[in-house]
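[Automated response] Your request has been received and processed.

Submitted sequence:
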Amino acid sequence: MTTVKDYSFSQRLQTFGTALPNKTKSFRLKKSDLLAPVELNKQVKKGDIIAKLKTENIIAPFDGVLGERGLSDDVLVSESSIILTLDDSSIILSDIKVPETYAPLMKKGLPIEATFSGQENKIYSGKIDSVASRINADTRSLLVRIKIINDNFELIPGSLLEVSIKYNERNSLGVPDTAVMLEGKKAYAYKVLEGNFVKKTEIETGIRNKGNLEIVSGLKKGDKIVAEGLGKTRPGEKIKPIINEN
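Generated structure:
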């Protein structure tokens, strides 16, 4: 037996985006100008020397990770030059396309959750940072930028993110989905009355969220209902309740 109570419900829009660093800068150097090898894949601080050249030193304009981008499209150039990249990935951004149907619902500050294949069991929380002012007439979509604080630098720029935008968040009455049975297009719950007798009660449900179903009508806060084993329950019978508030 469980009790009808308030739960947090929200609707979700699932989409994909590419992880982008908060800041990025590239430096093209001639290998012949280098006075010392460049240390790659290391964290540097703003003001650090990232490359010592014959003519000048290249200074990091912001904190970030130093890497190298190849020039595979031009072998001769790649043999004589390198392109260093400095990425600040302490914050990860991603620009995603939202179908125009959802455009009126997109607001700055809406919470998002993201996952990527490099950390399959971890969810990264963030928010919508900005929303475009117009819909793209070619794609019929709205460009939305999301922002995720990347505390442990686990999200890598260039990664494919699976993004879930949460909208229309609200607190509503709800029950575990195991407490609801469907018969055709109608939904029912077994309400526990005085004396532990049960009454089959028609209800109207809303959205499902994390194993709970929103109750639109048919039950009120505090009502006690049968939480599971509905197939063995019969209207009007007396039950021996076991309280389950999970």
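Summary generated for your ticket: The chain is about 0% helix and 55% strand. The first helix runs from residue 75 to 80.
If you did not submit this request, please reply to this message.
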